[in-house]
Structures are given as C-alpha cells and as structure tokens.
Amino acid sequence: FEEKRNFFLEDALFFKTPIRVFYSRRIGGIEHYNQENNFSFFETKLTHATKYTFKNDKLNYGLIFAQSDPVNIRQFDLSTNLPYSIQSSVFRLSHLLINNKSKIGIIGTDFKTKYNHVNVYGYDYSLNFLNDRLFLDSQFITSKEGDNSGYGTNVEIGYRTDTFTFINKNL
Description:
By secondary structure, the chain is mostly beta strands. Helices cover 2% and strands 62% of the residues.
C-alpha cells in the first residue's frame, strides 16, 4: 500500500535509499509473528510518533521514533504486566561532498515487538565526475532478525550525455 499519512509523507524523500530500508507503512499496520511455529497476525494502531529533520548546505539528518499498540487484543503482557507495544525507529544522516555533487550517507532502523526484534543498518554514496556525466551510486546494508542475518548490495554506474544514458545496475 502507498503511504497516505501526512506525518510520514512530509520529508519522505529524506529517508529514501537505493535499497528500501525504511517502510513507514509497517508502523501502525498489520503485525506478523511466529512464536514456536505458531504463525499469527494482528492489527496495530499508531499511538505516538516523533520526527526531527535538519538540513543545511552540506548536512542532512533525521530521526523518527514511533509506538504502535495492538487493536482488539490484550494490551498487557501477562508475564510481565507491562503494556504490549511495538517500538519503531529510523535515523538517516547524509553529507554532501566535492562541490555538492557527491554525497555519503548512513541509515538505520530498529523494529521491536514482544516476539521480534529487527535491525537494518547501511551506508550509501553517490559520486559524480566529469561534470556529472559519469556517476557511481552504491549502497550496502546488513540486517538482523533474531539469530538470522543478511546482507544487501546495490551498485549502479553510468554515463549521461545529451543524447543517451548508459546505466549498469548491480555489478
């Protein structure tokens, strides 16, 4: 589904990276979990969210913290007597380099429920040469969910002219 909530639409491009790391629709949506091979899902509602973004000539950064609560199910964990909630956070930092034509950045997300804890971290860069005709864009990420971990890479290199563009993705 496309994001329609104004809170997440404002400055949405700021958190966009070549490999989509941040999914705002997962916050306050349907939560899926597997506890001892018992698969289930339930609806959640966004209850609190805070966002801070900053931009100047060279540096951009942003933070989002959000909490969602289950809808129509027990609101307290009986084993701890604590409220059952889902915490989500994302951070993004990018810095312009070399005459504001290139940039480097980092991104990280954290999604925590009673049954699951997922982290994704990565860095990306975009380098431009020869009057912005030659470019190299790349991103590397690592993710961890419980005992499972994974890695992702995206690399694009290309050359632009007034008459054609050549791009080679995922070298």
